[in-house]
Write a structure and sequence with these properties.
This protein is an alpha+beta fold. Helix content is 29%, strand content 28%. It has a 7-stranded mixed beta sheet with strand order 1-2-3-4-5-7-6, with helices on both faces. Helix 1 crosses helix 4 (45-54). The radius of gyration is 16 Å and the shape is globular.
């Protein structure tokens, strides 16, 4: 693999916007993301600037976004890890029972799938999660659509296991109907 896996910097908001828009145009987007391309496209630059600044991993950050950067400077993939404190309401409307990480926005460009980039990106996010002293995270979770078996298999290969928890998506017009399945990886 000839990519550099690293954290997004706040001044890279335009590239973060570009890869997010690319992810939302992927054929799997309806079963992979809770947002549409059209909705994301309407966001002003300030939205993307705040998002990039808020996901530049540092001590005390509430999120960390990591990218796979090719030798020519293009971004081939990205993941974001949200920090959820015990008692916080997550973006899905559920209350977190414990301090945990929540992996979201996972995307690898189609031509780079199967090359190990997904594992490298998730490893970077997990390394950051496990390095936090406050809150100390015992696990990282993610949600994957029941109609996305390829993603489910990829996450299992990385060590995530189904918890048996699922969330209905029928009220969200941005995604395919069905359920999101929770998968988790515990701190080793």
């Amino acid at each position: 693999m000839n990519h550099v896996i690293r954290a997004v910097q706040p001044d890279e908001w335009a590239k973060a916007k570009d890869i997010r828009l690319a992810s939302l145009q992927d054929p799997a987007a309806p079963v992979a993301f809770l947002e549409t391309y059209e909705g994301a496209l309407k966001q002003p630059d300030s939205f993307w600037q705040e998002r990039a600044a808020g996901s530049s991993p540092r001590h005390g950050a509430r999120a960390g976004q990591f990218i796979a950067e090719a030798p020519d400077g293009t971004w081939s993939g990205t993941v974001t890890l949200l920090i959820e404190e015990a008692g916080d309401m997550d973006f899905l409307g559920a209350t977190s029972e414990q301090a945990q990480g929540h992996l979201v926005g996972v995307f690898v460009r189609p031509e780079q799938r199967g090359t190990g980039l997904l594992g490298a990106l998730v490893d970077a996010a997990l390394d950051w999660a496990w390095s936090l002293e406050e809150p100390r995270l015992a696990r990282v979770r993610l949600h994957v659509h029941e109609g996305n078996p390829r993603a489910q298999a990829a996450y299992r290969k990385l060590g995530f296991v189904p918890t048996g928890v699922s969330l209905p998506l029928d009220d969200n017009p941005s995604v395919a109907p069905g359920r999101d399945l929770e998968m988790v990886i515990d701190r080793s």
